[in-house]
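Q: Two folds, back to back.
A: First:
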Amino acid sequence: MQITLRRKFDFEAAQHLPSFPEGHKCRRLHGHSFALEVCVTGSVDPKSGLLYDHAKIASVVRPILEKLDHTSLNDTPGLENPTLEIICQWFWKQLSPKLPGLSEITLHETPRASCTLRAD
């Protein structure tokens, strides 16, 4: 039986999207209250009764978020054109080597707009 744990994190950041056409509102500097959901999937350890300690997930995610919180995402290498899709892929590259079992991340840019990336 496979179990999926989901942990949610929040951060605030500014961005502008230089690839968007002149006059598009997202080309101008603006900010978001982002929400990142990180999912790990696997089997429950029969001895501990856990798949993952939530503190382990947080210990991997929080240092990455601290680098982004209250910054301009465009100043982060790899996020020079920080579309929701590119940010989601960037998070996957940062998290996957450190979180075995990473199965999905969802990045919410607004309450109505998000991007989900799943393991193949």
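A: Second:
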Amino acid sequence: MLENLLNNIVERRHTDSMKWNVKDNELPMWVADMDFPVAQEIRDRLIKRLEHGIYGYSLPSDAWYNAYIQWWSTKHQFNMDRTWLHFVEGIVPAVATAIRRLSSPGDKVLLMTPVYNHFFYSIRENGRQILESPLQYENGNYEINWARLEADLADPQTTLMILCNPQNPTGNLWTPETLALIGELAVRHHVTILADEIHCDVTAPGEHYTPFASVNDLCREHCVMFMSPTKCFNIAGLKTAAVCVPNPGLRNQMWAAIKADEIAGVNFLALEAAIAAFNEGDAWLKDVLKYINENRKTVNEYIHKHIPMLHLVPSKATYLLWIDCTQLQGAPTDFSTFLRQNTGLFVSDGNAFGEAGKHFFRLNIACPRPLLMDGLERLKNGVQQYQLLNNC
């Protein structure tokens, strides 16, 4: 039943949607929000709260804390104390707050690239230096370049590392062993980990996400974790997230910074949506993940059959696919722009994800299958036109 609903196209044009603020002939498959209706349980809870009729100031309730604690304990075997959690309006502003409070102007903040583009803005706009520590790309897969990572962590100016767990855009799911080694190296070189875990519940069948702070005592005591139901339950517009800091010293610094930056203003609907998502949204999420996985298979088969000069990087997490276009004739650094101009398909340009993102683009597949097939046809046509142009 839900699969039929997921196949239905909900018209989002002219609804003030950032994703769909495009020309009528364009198909947006870029920014990370889904084109699926939110779980009915979330909608029902929001409607019930709205019917109360008074929308005054709110505070995080016991139900809000318990929803986070129960979800992470049940789903990810990570037991959080209530005192570790603080409501924030979003992960991006909270990461910026952490950068300002836990480093000094001119310090370096390490990113394993390619990585989520907004991190670059948060670092640069707060007067810190971006230190790209590229992942190693070999045989169509990404791995950590451990020698390079340790050298970059050892730089005396490096004070923070932003870890994307799971990794956006490559779809890597870091193993407990990998996370433990990252934590060991970071602590050895006096670097604090900022762990963005927003995509944690969007994993492929049989795959499991590990919270960074759950790995061992070392990781737990040297990190700030950022978490939210927004990506997994498609409620990004409600601005609801949390910061988790087990270490009391780091926690005191972060709570003071969150208060100073005034990023903990509580929208009462943001609380209700998070509670409903974690307490009642599990069945919806399971069905959506199955659908996304079928979309992932569809893209893989289509590219293999119809666009073999592209390479889909194997992905274990997120609904964002990272596609290698280095085999295209010409200068594929401009391929995303060409694609939009000539076919209307709007994807995320790999250049935005760091120097290591050249010759790649990111594709959002959290959409009804008819839209996905439309996007794949446009992609095939765009590649053909691009090849023809550059072979002339």
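Q: And?
A: The CA atoms of residues 230 and 237 lie 8 Å apart.
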